[in-house]
Amino acid sequence: MGVNKRRTNLYNPNSPVPFNVSRSKIALFLECPQCFYLDRKLGIARPDIPEYSLNNAVDHLLKNEFDLLREKKQPHYLMQQYNINAIPFWHPSFSVWRDDNGMRIGATTLHKKTNLNIHGIVDDLWVNPANQELHIVDYKSTSASEISLESKYKEGYKRQIEVYQWIFRRMGFLVSSIGYFLFANARRNHPGFHGKLQFETLIIPYQGDDTWIEPTILQIKKCLDSQDIPDPGKNCQHCAYRTMIKKETLKHQITLI
Questions:
Q1: What strands, in cross-sheet order, belong to the sheet with 107-111?
Q2: How far apart are CA 122 and CA 136, in angstroms?
Q3: Which of 27, 127, 131, 149 makes the best surface tag, with the fewest CB within 10 Å?
Q4: 249 phi-psi bin (left φ>0, alpha ψ -120 to 50, beta other)
Q5: CB–CB of 123/63 below 8 Å?
């Protein structure tokens, strides 16, 4: 994205058309209401960051691997290893939810009270064949000595699964509170690269709680309807950078007078 303001996909309180708010924009609002407001209402987005091509490649290969079993309605060996009673889920709209078409919409539910379309793109869905209960699954690629969900930045991982759980429940599916993170962890303890990375795959279950989502959507609506730009998030580095630039520019101008 360039430096020009975006002219499309901006919130208009007078429009009867539902306004799209993605899972990632909910995360942005929680991180910094000011950045969210500037993006969704004024068309001033944060600078783009490059895509993680290696992560995308791992995600793509995992999807291929599970799709083969999806067709056969068979469990993956990891499911058996972790005693997860499930198989990869299939549905006529699954490719849309996973965004195989590149439209960047995914699974969608209309929040009628706010007229906001809440949507998100899932990595995978598993289903318990006994009770047809869905498990939200998110793929993560990393390279770490220890894998856990305890670090602060992984709170975003947890909210991600909870948003998807909330969406699919509103879409009428029976959704388990247990979601799964499938980690592909690149090993670094080998004597050399030799043209390939070796990964270990592991699954970490997570029990989600989506009770925060409804009040957050109401806060988002209030933010969008406001005529005032909200305060920045406490730990927003983007807003801190803008503030520092303004201060330093002003100091420099004063010294030139």
A1: 19-22, 116-120, 107-111
A2: 8
A3: 131
A4: alpha
A5: yes
Q: What is the count of structural domains for the chain?
A: 1
Domain that holds residue 207: 19-232
What's the first-to-final CA gap in the chain, in angstroms?
Answer: 36
Identify the DSSP state of 188: -
Query: Does residue 220 lie within any of the structural domains?
Result: yes
pLDDT digits (tens, 9 = 90+) for 167-189: 999 999 999 999 999 999 988 88
Answering whether pTM is above 0.85, one says yes
220: domain CATH number is 3.90.320
Residue 226 within a domain: yes
Sheet containing strand 124-127, edge to edge, reads: 87-88, 124-127, 134-142, 178-186, 199-207
Q: DSSP 3-state helix, strand, coil percentages of the chain (rounded to 5)? A: 40, 20, 45
Dihedral sign of CA atoms 7, 12, 15, 19 in order? positive
pLDDT at 1: 44
Cβ atoms within 10 A of the Cβ of 189, count?
6
Domain assignment of residue 140, yes or no = yes
